[in-house]
């Protein structure tokens, strides 16, 4: 069996890669459905590592038929791990005790992976010196973990999605199990044919799941969303779902509501028109960061003075959505097709740091809420410093700032961060039925008076002189808290911590 030893070491890499992929999937799925990325990643990986320790300990009680047990465990990991993401999505949609299912599955996979490496080392113990065996197996184990950690975010999930990634690695595990029946054939005392038949059955089941992955995702989403799904696709950056119900069309990104056509005009009128009201000149160049649905652009194009709108959004599937979905094109009044609109698909942070575009008169910042570090960086002093450098001295900015009543500390952290970056800020809020009370920041580079009314001559469905003025009035339960509020910087991401702790109360 000595010439087969290199192939068995390759098994170690595959085992480590598959095991870590399953736990990254579990952590991502739980963060997707529960919206609590830091806590979920920490708990899932912690439970997984401790379960591996339990598995390693339990391996001491396996004394006979090591090769057969290794193949059986590999097939069990393939079946449970491969179907882990679809099972988690389906259970979250239909079962109230999702946490129990999640951590039980993580623990079982961890125990099985913890059993694999010790068994493989014992199978190889007669072929190598102990020090070489341990060093090679453990070194390759860590190489596999590195490979998994790079493949998962950079290649697998962006191209395959969560469910297909899970099932693909299940098939890889099953192939390893089947492969093992040939590599370890001299050590398998009995049931060789049975092991191979089981392996091919598991492989076929996973292959069927891979082919039907989109149907599995749809099945879970139909339970998650109360209305009819009319569009559902995964881009390299997010899951995009559009539903149609009694109140109209709704857009969800990674399960989070972005707008409902029934009341989106309230949100977008409040997002856009205060900036034009605060601008003392004739704004011509407008920058939109985020807002790939085109609804903010629709409001901007109501101003005849606007000569160009530069929209920077990371996801081309999002900025092209109105081309595929006539309902969205109708809602944004074909704003994305207007010749004045220039769409740039890029990370806004990177784009601001590198662009040599002329200074902008108006900036509208409409990013998703800061529920993870990737989004949190777009609310930091560094980001606002980059934005400030691209603004005309008389420019006005509006930024969506989450809810000042549901996430009071988060809202005021954004306000304080803007001020720390050198902006003069007027916070405001309004009621959007789909979201509740929602908060914004109106900012300029120089001190300015709060605008008293919306601009004249613009068609508005919600804003009036009275409602506009009332937005800048904060009730006592939404004012700046007495305790100190941290400024959000790249090196502390205080805002993400505030956001997770505050919104977790309403899960």
What does this protein structure show overall?
By secondary structure, this protein is an alpha/beta fold. The chain has three domains: 2-220, Up-down Bundle (Growth Hormone, Chain: A), CATH 1.20.1250; 225-258, Spermidine synthase, tetramerisation domain (Spermidine Synthase, Chain: A, domain 2); 264-506, Vaccinia Virus protein VP39 (Rossmann fold), CATH 3.40.50.150. Helix content is 55%, strand content 15%. The protein has 19 helices and eleven strands. The chain has helices spanning 5-34, 37-58, 66-82, 84-94, 98-124, 130-183, 192-211, 213-224, 264-278, 295-300, 316-319, 321-324, 326-331, 348-354, 373-376, 381-389, 408-420, 465-470, 494-503, and strands at residues 228-234, 239-245, 248-253, 256-260, 285-290, 308-312, 341-344, 360-366, 391-400, 424-432, 436-444. The strands form two sheets. The chain has a seven-stranded mixed beta sheet with strand order 7-6-5-8-9-11-10, sandwiched between helices. Strand 3 and strand 4 form a beta hairpin. Helix 3 (66-82) runs antiparallel to helix 5 and helix 4 (84-94) packs parallel to helix 8. It is elongated and about 85 Å long. The termini are far apart. The model has no long low-confidence stretch (mean pLDDT 86).
């Amino acid at each position: 069996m000595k010439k087969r030893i290199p192939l068995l070491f390759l098994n170690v890499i595959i085992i480590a890669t598959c095991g870590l992929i399953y736990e990254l999937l579990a952590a991502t799925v739980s963060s997707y459905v529960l919206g609590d990325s830091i806590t979920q990643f920490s708990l899932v990986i912690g439970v997984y590592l401790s379960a591996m320790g339990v598995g390693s300990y339990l391996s001491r009680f396996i004394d006979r038929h090591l090769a057969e047990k290794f193949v059986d465990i590999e097939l069990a990991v393939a079946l449970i791990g491969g179907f882990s993401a679809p099972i988690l999505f389906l259970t979250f949609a239909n079962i109230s005790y999702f946490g129990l299912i999640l951590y039980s599955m993580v623990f079982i996979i961890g125990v099985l992976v913890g059993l694999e490496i010790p068994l493989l080392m014992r199978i190889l113990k007669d072929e190598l010196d102990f020090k070489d065996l341990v060093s090679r197996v453990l070194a390759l184990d860590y190489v596999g973990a590195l490979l998994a950690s790079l493949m998962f975010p950079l290649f697998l999930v962006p191209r395959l999605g969560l469910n297909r990634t899970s099932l693909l690695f299940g098939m890889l595990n099953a192939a390893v199990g089947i492969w093992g029946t040939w590599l370890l054939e001299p050590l398998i005392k009995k049931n060789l044919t049975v092991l191979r038949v089981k392996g091919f059955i598991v492989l076929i089941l996973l292959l069927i799941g891979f082919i039907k992955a989109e149907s599995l995702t749809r099945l879970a989403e139909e339970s998650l969303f109360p209305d009819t799904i009319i569009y559902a696709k995964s881009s390299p950056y997010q899951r995009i779902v559009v539903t149609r119900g009694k109140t109209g069309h709704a857009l969800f990104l990674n399960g989070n509501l972005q707008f409902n056509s029934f009341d989106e005009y309230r949100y977008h009128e409040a997002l856009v028109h205060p900036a034009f009201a605060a601008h003392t000149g004739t704004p011509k160049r407008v920058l939109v960061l985020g807002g790939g649905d085109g609804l903010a652009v629709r409001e901007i194009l109501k101003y005849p003075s606007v000569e160009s709108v530069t929209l920077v959004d990371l996801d081309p599937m999002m900025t092209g959505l109105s081309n595929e979905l006539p309902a969205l094109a109708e809602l944004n009044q074909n704003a994305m097709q207007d010749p004045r609109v220039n769409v740039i698909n890029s990370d806004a942070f990177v784009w601001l740091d590198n662009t040599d575009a002329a200074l902008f008169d108006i900036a509208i910042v409409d990013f998703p809420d800061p529920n993870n570090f990737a989004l949190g960086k777009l609310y930091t002093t560094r980001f606002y410093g980059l934005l400030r450098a691209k603004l005309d001295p008389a420019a006005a900015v509006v930024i969506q700032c989450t809810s000042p009543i549901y996430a009071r500390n988060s809202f005021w952290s954004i306000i304080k961060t803007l001020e720390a970056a050198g902006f003069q800020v007027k916070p405001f809020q309004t009621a959007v039925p789909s979201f509740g009370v929602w908060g914004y920041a109106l900012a300029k580079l120089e001190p300015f008076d709060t605008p008293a009314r919306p601009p004249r001559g613009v068609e508005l469905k919600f804003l009036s002189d009275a409602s506009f003025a009332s937005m800048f009035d904060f009730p006592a339960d939404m004012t700046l808290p007495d305790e100190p509020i941290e400024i959000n910087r790249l090196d502390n991401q205080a805002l993400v911590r505030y956001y997770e702790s505050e919104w977790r109360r309403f899960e």
